[in-house]
Fold this protein.
Amino acid sequence: MDSQKVDMYVMTNAKYFKSQQLNYIRERMLAMDDSKWSMLQSVELKDPTTILIVSILAGGLGIDRFMIGDTGLGVAKLLTCGGAGIWALVDLFLIMDATRDKNMEKVQQFLA
């Protein structure tokens, strides 16, 4: 794939991934076939900052976990009222990395 196209994608979407993952994504995209480009661009990535704001406002209800696709954890968080508030507090620190990991899982399907 064209390196200019790859660099543009990585720069545009850097906030959706951990910094350690960016080099891996770039290398895999350079080795990728051009036919997968449109599929890769169509992947809906979640914004970690938006998920953090949702976690601050409604984290006790598990909405943040539902939004990133952790349905089981979202239900558990909802039923326990955010683990009596403790789980909701811990998620304030962990939810952004969890979101970036989920984004990486989505992109990994096309990079493999």
Q: What stands out?
A: The longest helix spans residues 86-111. Helices lie at 3-12, 19-31, 37-41, 48-58, 63-68, 71-79, 81-84, 86-111.
